[in-house]
Amino acid sequence: MSTLHTVLTIILIAPLIGSIIAGLFGRQIGRTGAHSVTIAGVAISTVLSAWVFWLFIIQGHEPYNAPLYTWMVSDGIKFQVGYLVDSLSATMMLVVTFVSLMVHIYTIGYMDHDADYPHDNPYYQRFFSYISLFTFSMLALVLANNFMQLFFGWEAVGLVSYLLIGFYMKRESAIQANLKAFLVNRVGDFGFVLGIAVIVLYFGTVDYAEFFAGLEQHRNDTIDFGWGPVSMITAATLLLFVGAMGKSAQMPLHVWLPESMEGPTPISALIHAATMVTAGIFMVARFSPAYELSEVALSVVLLVGAITAFMMGLLGLVQNDIKRVVAYSTLSQLGYMTAALGVSAYAAGMFHVITHAFFKALLFLAAGSVIIAMHHDQDIRNMGGLKKYMPITYWTMLIGALALIGFPGFSGFFSKDSIIMATAESEQFGAGFAHLLLVAGVFVTALYTFRMFFIVFHGPESEYVRTHEIHESPKVVTIPLILLSIPAVLVGWPLIEGVLSGNYFADSIRVLPEHDVLREIYEHDYHGAFNMVLHGLMSVPVWLSFAGVATAWFLYLKRPDLPAKIQQACMPCYRVLVAGYGFDRFNEIVFVNGSRRLGEFFWKVIDQTFIDGWLVNGSANMVATAARNWRQMQTGYLYHYAFAMIFGLLILLLWAVWAIK
Amino acid sequence: MSVGYPILSTLIWLPIVAGVIVLFAGRNNPALARWLSLITAIVTFLLSLPLWFEFDRTTAAMQFVERFDWIPAYKIQYFLGVDGLSMPLVLLTTFTQVLVIASAWEVIKERVEQYMGAFLIMQGLMTGVFVALDAVLFYVFWEALLIPMFIVIGKWGGPRRVYATLKFFLYTFFGSVFMLVSFLYMYYQAGSFSILDFHNLPLGMTAQVLIFLAFFIAFAVKIPMFPVHTWLPDAHVEAPTAGSVVLAAIMLKMGGYGFVRFSLPITPDASHMLDWLVIVLSLIAIVYIGFVALVQHDMKKLVAYSSISHMGFVTLGMFVLYDIVESTGGLKGAQLGLEGAMVQMISHGFISGAMFLGIGVLYDRLHTREISAYGGVVNVMPWFGFFAVLFAMGNVGLPGTSGFVGEFMVILSSFMANPWYGILAAFTLIIGAAYTLWMIKRVIFGDIRNQEVARMQDLNKREFAIMTALAVAVVALGVYPYPLMDVMHVSVEHLIQQAMTSKL
């Protein structure tokens, strides 16, 4: 067993051990014990992940693919648990463990007091146990070298997400939201499992390497669902993408993510912004060799992503809950990443995953810092003028916001601009339309981001702010903010060249030469990161984002009377946006009520009336009438009869065993 | 294989003899009855372990065989043995039984000796069903089993127990009569009651179809399959906790076991011809019953319907092999389906057993199983909440729990037979999660609903130990199913060979 193998095992297991100790023995070890042990576990993983990152990205180690143990073998198909480390997973590991570590530390401050729980309740320990368990699950997902383990990680992060959204389990809204999140994700998983089934059927394996190796041989295979043969690769990739739509909250499976904000803010940052929701993007990038073979699948991915990016961004404009603004922004940004995948710019999509992980975790944690200061009030209308009370939060959130809107030089600029350029360059069906949506989305992003930012920090102080003592959050909260704002600014610079040229993910992402728009950009338009920033200052998207900020400033600081007038002027538009385009209402009526009606019908009419009423009791009554005498005779003797019979049997069998021999 | 004592006979007769002793010695002495029963169950479990450790994983032949003439005039033999299909089920029985006895510890206050005695006798008979290799012996165990269960539900059951017991008895009795007729027919053909002789008995198509249908009725009722499933929710609702556990964890498995021990090897051609019947009914069980489970108000009914839905995977996995051959031209996937079905049976034993025990824990405290009577239980019973969520996740088939293994394998293999089988089977991912977690939401989570709930006590040590044992089993099988698969491989391969060899 090589050192690397041992290191990977430690990276994977350390958070799990921390989680088990904090979860099962939380009362015994107390609060300090719980956060120490979980932070230690995640810190070990982070340091070792940094080493792995150094080894694979800096040193250019060969991709490492090895089994840990054989889960089972059936029908000659080996189901193993193992590791695949290459540029893709090494990068994700570092992002996941680093953000997780920041969130662990931040949580000490955030979860210190809780209105929902008495102080002696070990909710605090449980929370640490959950986020460490999440880290383990996410690492299992990222490190997977086969579909089975990927699915394990996929479902395990879903479980922790379920537990954490419902963390405030006394609140009806929280336990409604977590049920919804789990079920909507399960709709995605339904597709995911069927995608795996297609692969097992055609490739006879769940192993990535064998799957990739078989792609050439099976690329023209067809599958018949009853309406004639369709491309097998298209079917498999689209089914897998349904899974990605669930986890990465793409329309129409996005409905769970806004409500996931019922969970405590640290997990909104870790799970519902930085890591788990990007699992779908990671998965598609991981299977880029397969997606490359299906133009149909790529176009679907592209359009779903672009539509989500634009439409979800619009919803961010009408939210008043600070976390929901950030949540809709997450949905919108996930749409950008997905759209990148659709034009075969997987590297750009992953690049945005990385930058987004830092700046969005930063934004969420900064929002959480504001929420702490506001004593857990999340309505931005009750805030205002917080700049002077919480300078660290203010500056770090500004950094996050600038990164989010793609301000030239900030990390988000590089990744988002790559995606927008890629859609412009692409000849994929729908790329032109997608490009328009994404460019328009830039304006929307800047508008909702700075609407929130201005109202919270620059707007007139609200009644609440004036009458309460507002102060900056403690160090355990602000230090993670500062640490996260460093990569939120800088991480774009070293990565952009490798992403565009294709060198960074060369060993993991495969793009057909005719699809390779990033390479195209690299060869024709790219002249260094600094030039890109300069060039960006003159490009449409950047000007649109400046326009968005200016509009936000005008509407919410300069003329705060205007938004209400605009709302009045177009009431239907406003209603549609507030209702989130009616998805929730539709699901409620069609799926929730429909299922219950169907269940009632099956149960009451078919089971009870037809089967039981007519068939069973009907015939039973006939028999009963005929045999009434017989039954009356037996009543009371049955019990003796039973044991007499068994005893007789016993004697008989004993005789059979011993006497006859 | 031998372990120094006739292991299978011991596993059958030790509990039965002990049960009779408990019945007499335990009268007016409930403590003695309890301890004697528990010790018996534990000793039997320990004595059953050599089955696992001494089992030869390289042969499909029957192992630990005991064979004597019993009624020579009719060539009826006392013939016992296990292979990779039955051995895990025997261990499931001995394992579950320890928990079942422990679960009734303080709950049953009246006629303890009769209750305990009935369960011990039941244990012996259930083991007998799984290890009997003589059709008459099998039939005797199969039918005798109805009696103690009948008594347990009829005496310690709920208010509608008379209706439930009658329904249970009539349904199952109706089912097995036809089985007896087929046994007699085959005896006249084969000249023996040995099940292994039946396996090699050439049978014409008509005979096969009739025998298949006779078996089908018997096993479909037992599993139970749609539309002969309506006895199960009633029986569960009326049965005391331990009765439900035995019913769900072990007795339902006898139907699934019957299909692999009798139907597939004895009537391969009829199985091939009528596999659509089993598959359609299995898919109905998975989807239709899922919707029915969704709208239940009674927790036990909900879990009972969930059991039917999960057993649909068992029958589906067992009968997709013919369609796999037809659509892919090869056998790849058949083993996956059959082994998935077998694992699903074991896993369902753990999970449904745990869920019924959990409902029993709640019932012991509030004396109701209505979902609406609960709410916010986790606030007063955190450990119970932990286990409830864990087992719910098992029921939902989350990877890492045993519930995932069989479900996943059966979905994969049924997809190979026909994509639509896979699509309908995979629907359980959504509907199963919906009914299970909606119940969890209403019972476990939320604010404390009322004063009664506020007064509930968390698990005591005994309950904690029972839940822990099951939790370990569920997670262990989910994380490392390899050993269990390993035990089955050769027997399943042999079974596939039998099922694919025409007898015409």
- N-to-C CA distance of chain B: 35 Å
Tertiary shape of chain A: globular
What's the number of structural domains of chain B?
A: 1
- Mean pLDDT of chain B equals 90
Largest sheet of chain B: 2 strands, antiparallel
User: How far apart are the first and last residues' alpha carbons of chain A, in Å?
Assistant: 57 Å
Tell me the major beta sheet of chain A.
Answer: 2 strands, antiparallel
- Percent of residues in helices of chain A comes to over 70%
Q: Determine the number of helices of chain A (DSSP H or I, runs of at least 4 residues).
A: 29
Please give the number of β-strands of chain A.
4
The helix-strand sequence of chain B is: HHEEHHHHHHHHHHHHHHHHHHHHH
Spatial extent as radius of gyration of chain B: 22 Å
Task: Identify the most extensive interface between protein chains.
Answer: A-B, 76 and 84 residues
Unreliable stretches of chain A (pLDDT < 50, length at least 5) are: none
Strands side by side in the biggest sheet of chain A: 1-2
- Count of alpha/pi helices of chain B: 23
Low-confidence stretches of chain B: none
Number of strand elements of chain B: 2
Shape of chain B: globular
